[in-house]
Design a protein that fits this description.
The strands form two sheets. The protein has a ten-stranded mixed β-sheet with strand order 1-8-2-3-7-4-6-5-9-10, with helices on both faces. The chain has 329 residues and is of the alpha/beta class. The N and C termini lie far apart (42 Å). Helices cover 30% and strands 18% of the residues. The chain folds into two domains: 201 residues, Alpha-Beta Complex (DHBP synthase); 94 residues, Threonylcarbamoyl-AMP synthase, C-terminal domain (Rossmann fold). The longest helix has 17 residues. It has ten helices and 14 strands. Helix 9 packs parallel to helix 10. Bound molecules: adenosine monophosphate and magnesium ion. Adenosine monophosphate (AMP) binds next to strand 6, strand 9 and strand 10.
Length: 329
Amino acid sequence: MRFVVATPLSIKEGADIIRKGGLVAFPTETVYGLGADALNPEASARIFKAKNRPEFDPLIVHIAGLSSLEKLCLSVDERAKRLINKFWPGPLTLVLPKSEIVPDIVTAGLPTVAIRMPAHPIALELIKEAGVPIAAPSANPFGYISPTTAWHVREQLGERVDLILDDGRCTVGVESTIIKLAEGAILLRPGGVTIEEIEEVIGRVEIPSNNLTKLEAPGQLQRHYSPMTPLKILGDKSSKIQSKIPRGKRVGLLAFTPPKADPSRQAYAMVEVLTPSGDLKEAALNLFSCLYRLDKAGLDIIHVEPLLEVGLGMAIMDRLKRAAGNCKL
Ligand code: AMP
Ligand code: MG
């Protein structure tokens, strides 16, 4: 594995590795991705192995230009075109009918393919240089916290990657929103583009309940994005439960805003604040690195203050609920 700062030269090296069937971790605006040639089934299979990802869980294909979209999809309807105009490049993934050039391993045998054009200049340059679409899930072991810095990738995947391109912190911090455009539009995962913004462009989007029998995205797994340390979401502010720290336990707190004069917080061994200014964008940006630091601190439990599920709050709470798995306080 080589760990290098992303420069025109190292991006060329990365593109070369991709073309030869290797794995390159690279920055996107959402989280760091673990990329391989999306048209090469053996290369894409290496992603599953490196992440320990089950093969029923399809990958997102990243493109740098609209000409690739036509090759990868059978059809792109009016709604897709409107969403693409408004949000690409950016943190929105569209699930569309796939063409035959997309290998089955990439889509887990589904007749659809998930496609996104990232807004990060390094990601776009890497895809252009490689000359192929790049399949890339988040560059972390399956089910663990997503990486928002190259150092997270290095610590979590290390030698399982051929090259890590470092370009500092991601600017969105949560994964892309995934929308499936079938008869209706269905939200498969809340993410960097809010449901409110999407509905402004294409009208009502269906939000399926979590107990779907058929799993369409691992975002729908009950436990995902999880730290090793057990995580519990606290009751709302009015609830006394908030100050309940188990005796003799080292407990950390993931707080939305900085502690005011709140004595209950003083009992925490460690407090990470998502957004000093109370801004949801900043909270999303800090979410995984705060969780990462809490997880490294040798705590017994991580408590989380819930936030309102509107705008980006929906994606943040989705990740936190899944990080908590079935844990209930
Ligand atoms: P990750 O990049 O690891 O966050 O995962 C990529 C996401 O895209 C996963 O939630 C996949 O299940 C989802 N995805 C990829 N392809 C499809 C597809 N054809 N249909 C539904 N979801 C998909
Ligand atoms: Mg992931």
